[in-house]
Amino acid sequence: MSSAINGANVILLIANGFNESEFAELQRALLRAGAKLKTVAPENSLANGWLGTGWGHYFPVDMHIGDALGSDFDMMVLVGGSRSVAKLQQNPHTTRLIGHFFDAQKPIVALNEAVSLLCLPGRINGRRIAADPTDAKLAASGAQIAAEGVIVDRNLMTAQENNVETVISATLEHLENTAELVAA
Fold first, then answer.
1. Which of 64, 115, 143, 164 is disulfide-compatible with 124, CB 3.0–4.6 A?
2. Separation between Cα atoms, residue 14 and residue 20, nearest integer Å
3. What confidence score (pLDDT) does residue 2 get?
4. pTM (2 decimals)?
């Protein structure tokens, strides 16, 4: 089914406090589709998820964010979770990695709170995104913010959606449809 995803190198960017449900379900779906996943985080070896109203499980980190190069990956998924996003916003490597994906026009998926990370490299001016319209940084970025569940704008998919199945379906479809962008 997912020929463009099969064999693609996908970076899952997280930090402690990432949305565990979102991450785990998406990770399983991408693995079933044949993607080669690397979980990248500021933490070494393990990152702690956030599940419901408290800390969840620890998940292995494949690569420290400082060692990750955007050129090694075909697609990027920014996983939600307010604690994770707050930590990633403070890390300069987050801006470097996201900036590379914008510059190379590679597929990017940003989920829920992680949509706010897109304003870090300053490349979403004029882009249509699904986001919280009260997010001051996003509002100042020049992006066209819409209160929709999922929006695709060229290589960028943003989602403000709590239904994990909807997010997974939209993510797989977006990554499949952007196959021509994957060629490195």
1. 143
2. 10
3. 44
4. 0.94
